[in-house]
Amino acid sequence: MYSTTRHPAKSERRGAAVVEVALILPLFLAVVFGIVEFGRALMVGHLLTTSARYGSRAAIIDGSTNADVEQNVKSHVASVVGVTEDLVTVAINITPAPSNPDPAGDLSLTKSNDLCEVVVQVQYSDVSYVAGKFLQGTTLTGKCSMRHE
Questions:
Q1: Partners of 95 in the beta sheet?
Q2: Within a domain: residue 4?
Q3: Please, are residues 145 and 115 in contact by the beta-carbon 8 Å criterion?
Q4: Domain of residue 116, residue span
Q5: Alpha-carbon gap, residue 19 to 82, rounded angstroms
Q6: 90 burial type by CB count under 10 A (0-12 exposed, 13-18 middle, 19+ buried)
Q7: CA distance linking residue 125 with residue 137, whole number of Å
Q8: Three-class SS string for 22-81?
Q9: pLDDT tens readout for residues 99-115
């Protein structure tokens, strides 16, 4: 009529649960923080590409200067990514079209069909959420090229 099997007391099982949590929690948190950090890296990379596209559009218009385009891109990156402008690197590369044999390094001297490339870079350590050695030394880059009008 009565069962003779003995069930362990709750206090005996409680110690095992603490040990299981202590073993699994660090691994779980590492995976979660890894997902968050890679997501942040992908998001910032996409925002840098968008900022480079924004700068390329400004660079291909007649009358634009290198300083104006750089300042506009830096302020755009600072507003969407959340870093200060001095942490953003902007490079403008101009490749002359085959019909324009003279290389032009200045946007004010570019001619029609010259290729204007805007490269935007920021160090990942400046935009990461989690401090540490995760993706340290990585430079995030966004590029866009358009032909001068």
A1: 115
A2: no
A3: yes
A4: 15-147
A5: 41
A6: buried
A7: 7
A8: HHHHHHHHHHHHHHHHHHHHHHHHHHHHHHHHHHHHHHCCCCCCHHHHHHHHHHHHHHHH
A9: 666 656 788 888 888 89
- In the structure encoding, which two tokens stand for residue 83, read together? 């870093």
Q: Would residue 2 count as lying in a domain?
A: no
Tokens standing for residue 123: 């160090």
Tokens of 128: 């990461």
CB 49 within 8 A of CB 118: no
Task: Give the torsion sign (CA, 67, 69, 75, 77).
Answer: negative
Query: Distance between CA atoms of 27 and 2, rounded to whole angstroms?
Result: 44
- Give the tens place of pLDDT for each residue, 48-101: 999 999 999 999 988 889 999 999 999 999 999 889 999 999 999 988 866 666
- The letter for the amino acid at 58 is A
* Domain count along the chain: 1
Tokens of 89: 């690197």
Quick one: residue 71, left, alpha or beta (phi over 0 = left, psi -120 to 50 = alpha)?
A: alpha
Asked if residue 112 belongs to a domain, the reply is yes
């009008």: which residue's tokens?
149
Whether residue 8 lies inside any domain: the answer is no
